[in-house]
Amino acid sequence: MALTETVPAAGPSAHEGILRRQSLRESAARTYARSLPIVPVRARGLTIEGADGRRYLDCLSGAGTLALGHNHPVVLEAIHKVLDSGAPLHILDLATPVKDDFVTELFATLPPKLAETARIQFCGPAGTDAVEAAFKLVRTATGRDGLMAFSGAYHGMTAQALAASGGARHTGVTRLPYPYDYRCPFGTGGERGAELSARWTENLLDDDKSGVVRPAGMILEPVQGEGGVIPAPDDWLRRMRQITAERDIPLIVDEVQTGVGRTGAFWAVEHSGIVPDVLVLSKAIGGSLPLAVIVYRGDLDAWQPGAHAGTFRGNQLAMAAGRATLAYVREHQLARRAQELGARMLARLGSLAVHHDCIGDVRGRGLMLGVELVDRDADAGPGGVRPAAPQLAAAVQRACLDRGLIVELGGRHSAVVRLLPPLTITDEQADAILDRLADAIAAADRTTPGPTGSSPTTLRGTTP
């Protein structure tokens, strides 16, 4: 199916009308539509076509949902197969062949030590629903109430998930320092910063005067996505696993965005070799459709029937699309591809940073990449780090869109340009993404001359 074989483009006037009506009708809480004023009408792979006829390379991928990109043939085939079969589309949590196939494929991808005794709970359709279920599970299993979470975290927008996220204030959640090499909370960075983070955690748990009682669980992200694309060091993850295991604290790992090959392993915990007690999964596991589950150790399965329920736990189309996606990523070794291509992209982003003082740091894992922008005219603080530059980041995002590239912003100050391309991108498409990003940064950088008079550049010395 070619990109031009679907819904016809609506035209520039319809494009403007749709955007205008959205702004009048929808709530003030809408977000993506504010920074990305486009009206998608067609999509295939990496490419989106808007109602105005413009084409874009999509490096947002539904916030990491589209592991195979838009409308991948294996996903469409799986959906059509269910539709053509006459199978029920809404079936609550009853057993179906489609559901059985999905669970079998999912369990085949899990770390073996987890899969041996694993149980699965289907939740509401979003990742935040799965986070809520994970909290309820560990509270039920342990009989305890408090939670440990990390600075910079993002786990969702429902009450408890938001309470465990970095920007919230909640008395039931103990905040811990996440190892952030570039802006280390201890001012050291590297292995020393990660070690201090682990010691801080141990001290809070073991000091009778710390005011922190043993919690029901600890939740963390192997790579903080919304927090600014910050990969946790593998040694630090192993320390967190050791600390929690020794104190009988269930470890919840949020792989909503990092899962299904995104970081260069099928599940990001595989990089460190840890086996969590609870895995929170959503986004890519639904193959572009809404699906969220938790997978957990069998001995934690202590809740009573009906303790966690939801009407839309039996989305047959999402399970079919998800099974097809999981199988395709596994069979085509797309996790390895993400690791190799991501490393090359990260290296080229590093070369771009040499030419632009406004780039403070480039980082990531696999095809989860971030470029942190800073105020190059400001004085550097501890460790030689300049303040974040959110206005520059917003200008870069707009310049990217002008050049046909969709990127997202994140980080503590929304100053990190985030790249989440599909795992199926080609080398040529990766080059196009980086060229357009480089040109956008150069254009935004030109508006504020730097102290060293840096000149605009692209990654390959050309303008796409």
TrEMBL record:
Pathway, per record: Amine and polyamine biosynthesis; ectoine biosynthesis; L-ectoine from L-aspartate 4-semialdehyde: step 1/3
Domain of life: Bacteria
MF terms in GO: diaminobutyrate-2-oxoglutarate transaminase activity; pyridoxal phosphate binding
Enzyme class (EC, first level): transferase
InterPro entries: Aminotrans_3, Aminotrans_3_PPA_site, Dat, PyrdxlP-dep_Trfase, PyrdxlP-dep_Trfase_major, PyrdxlP-dep_Trfase_small
The keyword Ribonucleoprotein is assigned to this record: no
Entry protein name: Diaminobutyrate--2-oxoglutarate transaminase
Cofactor(s) of this protein: pyridoxal 5'-phosphate
PROSITE patterns xrefs: AA_TRANSFER_CLASS_3
Family classification: Belongs to the class-III pyridoxal-phosphate-dependent aminotransferase family.
Annotated signal peptide: none
Keywords: Aminotransferase, Pyridoxal phosphate, Transferase
One Pfam family cited in the UniProt record for this chain: Aminotran_3
Annotated EC: 2.6.1.76
Lineage of the species this protein comes from: Bacteria, Bacillati, Actinomycetota, Actinomycetes, Kitasatosporales
Region (Disordered): 444-464
